[in-house]
């Protein structure tokens, strides 16, 4: 920082490094006519070409934004300082520095070794890792035996009611044909199935020409 004394007043100046600043600006909420009229677009670009003849423009009509890319950050900073919040075609133009995104390596890197064991099957499991075995399903054979002895219309109480919980009862549906013994799959395939009920279409009302008024 350098300090100069002029007329009893001290003026401070700071050296700014422009190498770390972005070299592009984003113009937000530009007029919609800018994307249609060629003369208005020429006037818009002329404002920024005075700071850098090699400036490039990218128009984003859906977002009503324009990206202005300069050859260096110094020209972008000067254009932003001079043109920010100035009037253009009857509207205030707002300029912001474009944020640069640093992804790092251009190639997609694999996940870290300690994260790879979460993949099924793991690509590179850690030492001592073993595949977990599926739990054996719990089968209540007493329940299956009791239900198999039930006939149509019978019921079996699974859980007796308590003052705080209701009872759970299994009901066997009645046979539609009145036969308690259910036929095998082979018998069902041999017997013809009953025809499906015919869908009756709604009749279209009679057409009557409209009365012209």
UniProtKB/TrEMBL annotation:
It holds the Pfam family Calcipressin. GO terms for cellular component: cytoplasm; nucleus. GO terms for biological process: calcium-mediated signaling. It comes from the Eukaryota. Transmembrane segments: none annotated. Gene3D superfamilies: 3.30.70.330. Belongs to the RCAN family. Inhibits calcineurin-dependent transcriptional responses by binding to the catalytic domain of calcineurin A. Could play a role during central nervous system development. This is Regulator of calcineurin 1. It comes from Seriola lalandi dorsalis.
